[in-house]
Amino acid sequence: MIEFIKRLPKAELHLHIEGSLEPELMFRLAKKNNVTIPYESVEELRAAYDFTNLQSFLDIYYAGAKVLITQDDFYDLTWEYVLKCVENNIVHTEIFFDPQTHTERGIEFATVINGIKQALADAEKQYGITSAIIMCFLRHLSQEEAFATFEQALEFKDDIIGVGLDSAELDNPPSKFTEVFKAAKDKGFKLVAHAGEEADYSYIYEALDLLDIERIDHGVQSINSPELMQRLKDEQIPLTVCPNSNIELKVFDSYDEHNIKELLDYGLNVSVNSDDPAYFKGYMNQNFINLYENIDLSEADVIELVKNSFRSAFISDELKATYLAQVDAAV
Ligand code: HPA
Ligand code: ZN
Predict the structure, then answer these.
(1) Could you tell me the domains of the chain?
(2) Is 197 considered catalytic here?
(3) How far is the CA of 167 from the centre of ligand 1 (A)?
(4) Which of these, 48, 173, 249, 255, could form a disulfide with 294 (CB 3.0-4.6 Å)?
(5) Ligand 2 centre from 329 Cα, in Å?
(6) Tens digit of pLDDT for each residue in 89-112?
């Protein structure tokens, strides 16, 4: 089964590029850029990755991102993730980045996007990996600040396929960002949002009905509303689920309690994603392996999860068909 998981071509739809910053690169960049990190060693830093909830992770994640200064840093960050894609047989990836995490520190929007973009262009050239970039608004900040970021992004419209919403979910509901999502839709951006990760399913309704999003990131709290479950099934709205993340951030106490199999069995369009793999103990394949080892995922389940990720990707119908045929061939 593990060999089977590794062999399948996969798509990743929920990956924060800042969350792929491995401790080794963090230390290397800290040294190069003269940024201090409050840990003595890679081992000590890794040991600090012991989270109690989403906020406890975000505190460390935003602190870590401070080592990213130059365009080359963003290139190196993204390139290391590209190499993980090769290792994990990820042939298409749609990555999130958080512009405000960097522009707040005086880093230019262009520095960030150009570094990411160049690495993704090289990934396609060298490995044939296709990709897209989604920029997320930080929901703990105001809608006004999101609008300021949105204005900056317009110059890079051709490089950014969509907008998303991430960071501290509780008390920052989707309704806080209705106007900026409307503006993004008017400009032709695809729309996604984190919803129903820690907060209850009402956030998923808001994301669907007020923000008009096409995919829900996480969405695991939908299980608590039969009516919402029915709607997600009828409309086949994708849920980009991140199992390791949910365990590490204590959304579920253990893998035995994770509900991905129930969501899948009910007929929802769920996929497996790694979220912040450098912080959550593993990339794509490890997420599948953990599911297989803990909740008895079948081969048919794995195939369905993998196919859902391609079906839900922001790519042409032709490319979808090509990738789905590649999955069938690998099976
Ligand atoms: N949830 C919300 N914000 C985030 C996450 C997450 O899982 N990862 C990075 N930013
Ligand atoms: Zn996420």
Answers:
(1) 2-330 (3.20.20.140)
(2) yes
(3) 5
(4) 255
(5) 30
(6) 999 999 999 999 999 999 999 999
